[in-house]
Structures are given as structure tokens and as C-alpha cells.
Amino acid sequence: MHPALPPCSILILAGGRGLRMGGRDKGLVPWRGEPLVAHVHRVVRPLSDDVVVSCNRNAEQYRPFADQLVADAEADFPGPLAGVIAGLAVAQHEWVVVLACDAPLVDKTLIEGLLSLAVASDSTAMVRQGGYWQPMFCVLPRSVLPVLQQAWAEGERSLQKALLRGAMQALDCGKADPRLSNFNSPDLLA
């Protein structure tokens, strides 16, 4: 981690149904000889002593990639907002980097850019690509947890909408930025 940046927790979201993958657990789908989550883990491991994986199945297969495992408080795969709430509740550091398990091309530069932006503004920082927010690439202060819990209690299920209730800084990335590729269908893995 860049010496001027504070310590952070890393939250890898791997708790989805994998519907576009035919029900397969996306983080465990092999790509270039390893599960997708292994590629993300290799990038983030040197950046944090607190890697949290949010998974709702296959916990033993995710354990080698996490210091802590969490699951959604509600059954039936309620979505990434539930995973973020569970992860923020156990995160050891005040800043939490949120990444999807199916984004194996993410890199240290992108993560440090988001963290730097979040710390400088003391607020959430999220990638914006071609004018669209990308909530699977963001850095949150742990202090946003009550806001997200309140949004959940009010029936909100969109992570993006819940995060946009507070201050948000954009890290703008190009439409074709390969670091933001998420492999959420079998075709994209090819």
C-alpha cells in the first residue's frame, strides 16, 4: 500500500446466485487455471491484513482467500447491499475497499486511486465508467454502515442507490478500461 494511505479492509463480494453463470458460484469459476476470486485475492493481499469474503455458499472453498468470511443476514441471496452490510460490520479498518469476485483484472493502481480519493474527501469513492456508477468498485468509510442499514430497513435493495444517499466522489474510468471487466457470463470467460 502507498505509505501515505491509511490501512484498509478489503471486502470481496462473492455471495450471488450466479444466474448468468447458470447458477455456478462465480468466484469459484476457473479462469486461466484458477478460480476468479484467486486473481482478485492476489492483487489485494499485499494491500491489507484484513481481507473479508462475503459468500453465501462454498465457505470452505473461499476460506483460503479470506481472513474473515461473512454471509448475508437473510437467506435467498438478497444482493450485494446485504453483503456490504455484513462485511462492514466485521471490517477491522475504517476504510473498506469493495470489489466483486468476478473482476480478475482489477489492479493496485485502481484500488489506491479509489482509496486516495475517499480519504481526501472523507466520503465514499466509486468508479464511474462512461457516466455510470460501478458500485462493485468502491471504497467506503465504515461510518456509512448505519446509512446502509437504514436504507435496508426502509426496503432499499440497490447498493448503488443506498450509497448515493451520502456524499460520493467519482473516480472516472474509460468505457474500455479492462480493469473493470467482470466475467459474469460463460461467454466473457472465453
Name its key features.
190 residues; alpha/beta; 25% strand; Spore Coat Polysaccharide Biosynthesis Protein SpsA, Chain A
SSE layout and pairings?
Blueprint: E1 8-14, E2 30-31, E3 34-35, H1 36-44, E4 51-55, H2 59-62, E5 68-70, H3 80-90, E6 95-100, H4 108-121, E7 124-129, E8 132-141, H5 145-153, H6 159-163, E9 168-173, H7 186-189
Parallel strand pairs: 1-4, 1-6, 4-5, 7-9
Antiparallel strand pairs: 2-3, 6-8, 7-8
Helix pairs in contact: 3-5
Brief account:
This protein has 190 residues and is α/β, with parallel strands linked by helices. It has helices at residues 36-44, 59-62, 80-90, 108-121, 145-153, 159-163, 186-189, and strands at residues 8-14, 30-31, 34-35, 51-55, 68-70, 95-100, 124-129, 132-141, 168-173. The protein has seven helices and nine strands; from the N terminus they run βββαβαβαβαββααβα.
Largest sheet: 7 strands, mixed
Give the termini distance in whole angstroms.
Answer: 32 Å
- Mean pLDDT level: 89
User: What is the H-and-E element order?
Assistant: EEEHEHEHEHEEHHEH
Number of domains: 1
Strand content: 15-25%
Number of strands: 9
The whole-angstrom Rg is: 15 Å
Q: What percent of residues adopt helix (DSSP H or I)?
A: 25-40%
Just give the CATH class.
Alpha Beta
Q: What is the tally of helical segments?
A: 7
Known CATH architecture: Alpha-Beta Complex
The CATH topology: Spore Coat Polysaccharide Biosynthesis Protein SpsA, Chain A
CATH homologous superfamily (4th level) name: Spore Coat Polysaccharide Biosynthesis Protein SpsA, Chain A
Sum up the overall morphology in one term: globular
